[in-house]
Design a protein that fits this description.
Blueprint lengths: L8 H4 L2 H15 L5 H25 L4 H27 L12 E4 L1 H4 L9 E7 L5 H16 L4 E7 H10 L1 H8 L2 E5 L1 H16 L3 H18 L18 H15 L6 H4 L5 H25 L8 H10 L10 H36 L12 E3 L2 E4 L2 E3 L5 H4 L3 H12 L2 E2 L1 H10 L5 H4 L2 H11 L5 H10 L2 H5 L1 H5 L14 H16 L8 H6 L6 H10 L10 H16 L3 H12 L3 H8 L5 H11 L2 H16 L8 H20 L6 H16 L4 H5 L6 H6 L2 H16 L4 E8 L4 E9 L4 H11 L3 E9 L4 E9 L9 H15 L5 H6 L16 E5 L7 E8 L4 H11 L2 E11 L2 E10 L8 H15 L1 H9 L1
Helix pairs in contact: 2-3, 2-4, 3-4, 4-6, 4-13, 7-8, 7-9, 10-11, 11-15, 13-14, 13-15, 14-15, 15-18, 17-20, 17-21, 21-24, 24-26, 24-31, 26-28, 27-28, 29-32, 30-32, 31-32, 33-36, 37-38, 37-40, 40-41
Length: 920
Amino acid sequence: MTNYRIHNQRAIIDRRTLSERIVALAEESGAQKARPEILALLKQALDSGREEIRRRLEEKPSAGYECVHGQAFLIDQLLRVIHDHVTDHVYPVANRTAAERLAMIAVGGYGRAEMAPQSDVDIAFITPTRRAPWCEQAIEAMLYFFWDLGLKVGHSSRTVDDSLRMAREDLTVRTALLEGRFIWGDRGLYDEISKRFWDEVVKGSERQFLTEKLVERDQRHKRMGDSRYVVEPNIKDGKGGLRDLQTLYWIGKYIHKVRSAAELVDVGLLTHGEYRSFRRAEGFLLAVRCHLHFITGRAEDRLTFDMQRRVAERMNFADRPGKSAVERFMQFYFLQAKRVGSLTGVFLAHIEDQLSRKRGQRGFFAGWKQKAREIKGYSVFGGRIAAPSGDWFRKDPVRLIEIFQLAEANGLEIHPETMRQITRDSTLIKDDVRDDPRANALFLDLLAGRNDPEMVLRWMNEAEVFGRFVPDFGRVNAQMQFDMYHHYTVDEHTIRAIGLLSKIEKGELERDHPRSSKLIHEVSSRRAIYVAVLLHDIAKGRGGDHSVLGAEVARKLCPRFGLDDAETELVAWLVLNHLLMSSTAQKRDLTDPKTIEDFVSEVQSVERLRNLLLLTAVDIRAVGPGTWNSWKRQLLGELYDAAQERLRLGHLRHGRKERVEAKKAAVATRMDKNAGLIAEIGEQFGDAYWIAEPEDVIALNLVQYRVAREIKDQLSIHCEYYEARGATLVTVIAADHPGLFYRIAGGIHLAGANIIDARIHTSRSGWAVDNFLVQDPLGNPFREASQLDRLKNAIGDALANRIELVPKLAQRPLPRNRAGAFDVAPRVNFDNTASNRFTVIEVNARDRSALLNRLARALFEAKLMVHSAHITAYGESAADTFYVTDLTGGKISGESRLNEIRKRLLEAASDHRQKQLEDA
């Protein structure tokens, strides 16, 4: 890694000419007087060198190595010039003593000569003794030059003995010295510390270094999201990033004393093909990092959504049908990260094997070897399964599927050498293997495995077997979705969903998925639900409706896998409708009988309903951390129960009157001594209230309503944590008047809360009883007393006109950083068939704190009455659904009237309107 060549070096910096000009200035005016002019020369050299490196990267946007080596070369030459100037002119010594010696050593990334444009300059100053005044003066003078040039310098000044002592104690110092590279000064000091480092620090500590480095790596991965498929990856420290490749090099260098990554091949840790992959992945990642540094002008290593577009453009990625330039760029990035993961696994397993063999050659059991057992011709030893010969898979390519199935069924890892064979021989998978009944039966057994199908499918994917055996899956390999909702690539999301289904089946997620944990044991075909999870997103990135296209893929693949006609039809239906249940639960009013009727008319059977709930639950949860919560569980559960009742009985168990009476009886039981309020106050509310609200909320509403009326309170606000829904319940009781809803929504938004559900009721005596469920921007409820008080005060201020809502709300930041990187065009849809009583309006727009308030105000200005609202956030966008009537209680009809409402809502949701309000 430290051997590099720079094309046309003097175009970057001409050290000889620069040195001669500095010497001339120093001799003419003296070092101190000439310092400003010398600094200006150095600054000019630095700026022109950086500009030349930038120009070269723009000319060859994938030349990552050339860029980082050029940057290291530029800094090397500047440091050498500064060193010579300081030692010759600033603090000259005619005859230096043995103590007056100094060596400059590059460490870290700079030591590898891999330096991104804005990286720190990490230097170790090595001196013979601790107290050497000349050395201290010279180091200080050099540092002032570095700082005055604007370089970010990470430096240390130690003796040889101190450096070695600290290296033994501190892993960071040891790693820095491991990569130490001589820059300038006393070569003898560098040679001494280098030799003693290998003799006194490294020798005998190889296993300790390996263990500590792997712990360090795991902690770093955990901080960065513990997946190489997060959609805003850190290209330096993230899983599958540059630091993982560097860790391989550190370990190889520490244990085998290799001087470059190429020598990892010589010691048997990488094959020639793997080394080429290493170089290709590292070169690409270095290029991306350099572009990030040039674009931002700082040491930026996170590939955020806004940066992804710009880097993709700079690296000449172009749009293709069904896939944008940024999606193609990120797919290529994730393929490199995946390759880094494969290399890491094989490399570390080989290191472990080598160290184990060395350990086995010593001590009492030296020479004793445990005999391997055999499974279907494979060798099994130490918890690993291995191919018995180098031509094992060439003799029968179906074994490329079989070995993964055996590994899953028997809880085994695959030997690293065998993984190499599998990757090498994966090209043997052609149509004859794909159509082989035994291969498909083995794959199905693996997919629906009882132990850990997620882990083994991930191995299969990284070995390139998965995508070759199921080419449709290969098409979504490493494919990202350019939005803020999906956290992972399509293949990683799918494999995680399969793992979640397996955990649900084993009862490991019963607390979060109690209903699903029971239903999975009631489905007629467990293999059908596993195949449905595999195929639900299989057609993403093809330029059409991925549900429709995916159902076509399912009808083609299921018979190949060995599913019968009934199973194939079930899987195809599930893939076609895999978004139906989540969309209905989150965007529709589940207390409206028409919602259930429409849903059931699509589902048609209890068997489909069971499978659809399972698929929906794992699909939502596998999107990423925090996307599954008790609110979504409650909504899906309510929809499932209502639909199951309708499917089993052929109709809803009770009519409207019976449902109201049953609800009143249940509330009476819950209220105990206060049950009299049902007769006293309950008659103030119509049937719609009793059907829409759950029993516990009604009980709270009735008590609050009575207290408010007794004390003649014109405004009553109650807030409490609502555990069953994973949200905070906010109930506002006030004299009903036009615009009440949008003002309450504005107050809630000003308190920093997001509304996820709202139900609006008016008593027969003209009092509004509005129930809201709210969460913070991260999807958590408000629980603390201070948070609840903030909600109450903000609502009170909004309703009393003590604050100007519009400008205050406009000034609040977007709920998610970098949401502005996405193009979100607002859309408005009307549906007069989704409810018998209401017109359903769905607005999709960029998510922002004031969105619901603005939309509600637009509806108020359009003279519409909102009866319920249901809000769902999808990363940078939101879908707000309103059940509305006109002022007479009728549905909205007439093309001109609908167009007028659409125009108002589009204007309220537009970025243009947001900008106007921000600037007001």
